[in-house]
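Recap slide: Flagellar biosynthesis/type III secretory pathway chaperone, sequence and predicted structure.
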Amino acid sequence: MSAAELILSLEKLLQLHKNLYQLTLQKTEILKSENIDALKELLKKEQMFVKAISQLEDERIKQTVAFLGREDELSMSACIEKATGSEQGKLKELEKDFKETIDSLKATNELNRELAKQALQLVSMTLDMLMPQETEFNYNKPANKPIEKQRRSLFDSQA
């Protein structure tokens, strides 16, 4: 088997990864603008890309096994070593493009993770500020209040 089918699958896979990277860039902007509805829609699109990548990856593995004639060490380096001529050059180029795209994707996902973490911390801090603080920290029985279901309220109704 020649590497042509494998190269075609790798090109499709690379394009899906580039599209996923574009979505992560959009996610960064959405996280900055705090638009929850847009984030939900983007996450649906992201899941579709992840599913498509997974399916295409399964196909690529089968093609790599057929190309290399073995089921172990199915790396790009092994494919490059076996390929000849222009196919070898094309595989080297694809390897470089994959590395750049995956590195960019990782960096953007890390940024998005940090933005989401900060947003959650802000929400948590805001809720803590809105909730009244308990003044007693001991185990005394409260006077004139029923024991069952004492709750801290978001708003002090006695004020």
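Helices lie at 4-33, 36-68, 76-82, 85-130.
The first helix runs from residue 4 to 33.
(End of recap.)
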